[in-house]
Amino acid sequence: MDYSTLKSVLEGLLFVSGDEGISAKTAAEVVETDVEVVKDVLKDLQKELAKKNRGIRIAEVAGGYRLTTVINHAPYFEKLAYSPTRAALSQAALETLSIIAYRQPITRIEIEEIRGVKADRALHNLVNKDLIEEKGRADALGRPILYGTTKSFLDYFGLASIASLPEPSLADGDDELEERTKMLFDRIEGRQLSMEDMDKELDTD
């Protein structure tokens, strides 16, 4: 294997190794090359990425090597992580969002009574994604927070206003919630968001 190919293969191994990384010994066994040669190539690749100001770097962690991002780029990664147009919605979050969208302003306790399960995690995620926000306090014991949707919610689902939400047919309880949730799923599909990505989030809330 020539030097250029070896460097390319090692870069690929780092990529598929993910956060766990790979040791020089393991990499050497895979490419059937001496460990010291692998270390030299990785150091060369490490310098090359930095010199060319690439968006990834090679870090040595706990005796292994792994790909990392440039620390100065962190604000952009945080912006992406919290962008509602990029972040996937779990089933729990979507059900909670459906209730809030159609019955706002509404308290956490009222949401939990409708869903039959705790809503703390879903509410936290929806707030972080700027899809819901506090709309004041309810005139009840403890003055619980009232939740409602945001402008980002309208942008996310391509709605001109809350009045543009699709009208569900007359139904009660779980049937109504299921229909409203399906309607928002349809909106997501219209935005061409990955259903596969959402499936990965189904058990997170």
TrEMBL record:
GO terms for biological process: cell division; chromosome separation; DNA replication. It is found in: Cytoplasm. Keywords: Cell cycle, Cell division, Chromosome partition, Coiled coil, Cytoplasm. It comes from the Bacteria. Pfam families: SMC_ScpB. Residues 28-62 form a coiled coil. One of its GO terms (cellular component) is cytoplasm. The keyword Coiled coil applies. The keyword Signal does not apply. Homodimer. Homodimerization may be required to stabilize the binding of ScpA to the Smc head domains. Component of a cohesin-like complex composed of ScpA, ScpB and the Smc homodimer, in which ScpA and ScpB bind to the head domain of Smc. The presence of the three proteins is required for the association of the complex with DNA. Belongs to the ScpB family. Participates in chromosomal partition during cell division. May act via the formation of a condensin-like complex containing Smc and ScpA that pull DNA away from mid-cell into both cell halves. PANTHER family: SEGREGATION AND CONDENSATION PROTEIN B. HAMAP family: ScpB (MF_01804). This is Segregation and condensation protein B. It comes from Cohnella luojiensis. The gene is scpB.
